[in-house]
Design goal:
Number of strands: 9
CATH class of the largest domain: Alpha Beta
CATH topology of the largest domain: Rossmann fold
Oligomer: single chain
Radius of gyration: 19 Å
Largest sheet: 6 strands, parallel
Distance between the termini: 37 Å
Strand order of the largest sheet: 1-4-3-2-5-6
CATH architecture of the largest domain: 3-Layer(aba) Sandwich
Shape: globular
Length: 283
């Protein structure tokens, strides 16, 4: 596995690979890899003959008071995990290289970013779409793989890629969960043991809502209230949002059908976790 630290060197490598007719599969991450990331890399290995992983904790997608400074980092560990699944190139760089002095450009997707995480984190998605646009231009991928745990992010990146004519196939893969059901997240390691146990309320609440919906309860308000009661039973839980939205438009829905998804964000102490599920499917 080759480790590349310069955006210019990464772009030269990628352009050379494209000229050679190689197919580039790309997994962008902020590092501290877990099995969810590795599942993306394994699928990327199947889809491309040059597999590129980026590790960059992007400061522009963190707002004031958020956990940029405390976000877990361990590049040596990430490199070993990346090698274990056959990654060809690890691209890792710093903010000074990605946003040099005088940098003045950003990418904004409107509409899809006005709801869910966008309400409480108003600058977040501008940071995401800007850095992903830059990474697409640097890495030159044919296919880019993302996890569906970040459901809104996936929808926003798909819209951005369509609107800006990026020649990249955007692939979303299923949520990978711990054996007890908690959605895998790099932030899980920051939970205390008590908070880690309480966080299971997220998946338990989604299971309850899914069971109720499949049994005939299709009123969004009733399902949201069911989930709210379950999560608020945990002493450290502070709900950011619980919403039922259309899977494509992310518009709030009054009733549940095959095209709706429940999304939630909850804080346990200073750790913010997200999860989602299409309620008409068993979890």
């Amino acid at each position: 596995m080759r480790i590349v630290e310069s955006p210019e060197a990464m772009q030269r490598l990628a352009l050379d690979a494209r000229r050679q007719g190689r197919t580039i599969a790309f997994v962008p991450t902020m590092g501290y890899l877990h099995e969810g990331h590795l599942s993306l890399l394994r699928e990327g290995r199947r889809r491309g003959n040059l597999l590129v992983l980026s590790v960059f904790v992007n400061p522009t997608q963190f707002g004031p008071g958020e956990d940029f400074a405390s976000y877990p980092r361990d590049l040596e560990r990430d490199a070993e995990l990346a090698r274990s699944v056959g990654t060809d190139v690890l691209f890792t760089t710093d903010a000074a290289a990605m946003y040099p002095a005088g940098y003045a450009t950003s990418v904004t997707v409107e509409g899809l970013t006005d709801t869910l995480c966008g309400r409480s984190r108003p600058t977040h998605f501008r940071g995401v779409t800007t850095v992903v646009s830059k990474l697409f231009n640097i890495v030159q991928p044919d296919v880019a793989l993302f996890g569906r745990k970040d459901f809104q992010q996936l929808a926003v990146i798909r819209r951005m890629s369509r609107d800006l004519n990026f020649p990249v196939d955007i692939v979303g893969l299923p949520i990978v969960r711990e054996t007890d059901g908690l959605a895998m997240s790099s932030r899980n390691v920051r939970l205390s043991p008590a908070q880690r146990q309480q966080a299971l309320a997220l998946v338990e609440a989604l299971r309850q809502a899914s069971a109720a919906a499949r049994a005939g309860e299709t009123a969004a308000a009733a399902l949201i209230e069911l989930v709210r009661r379950r999560i608020e039973a945990e002493p450290d839980a502070r709900i950011d949002y619980i919403q039922i939205c259309h899977a494509d438009s992310l518009q709030d829905m009054n009733t549940v059908d095959e095209q709706t998804v429940m999304l939630l964000a909850v804080r346990f102490g200073d750790v913010r976790l997200i999860d989602n599920h299409q309620l008409m499917k068993e979890l």
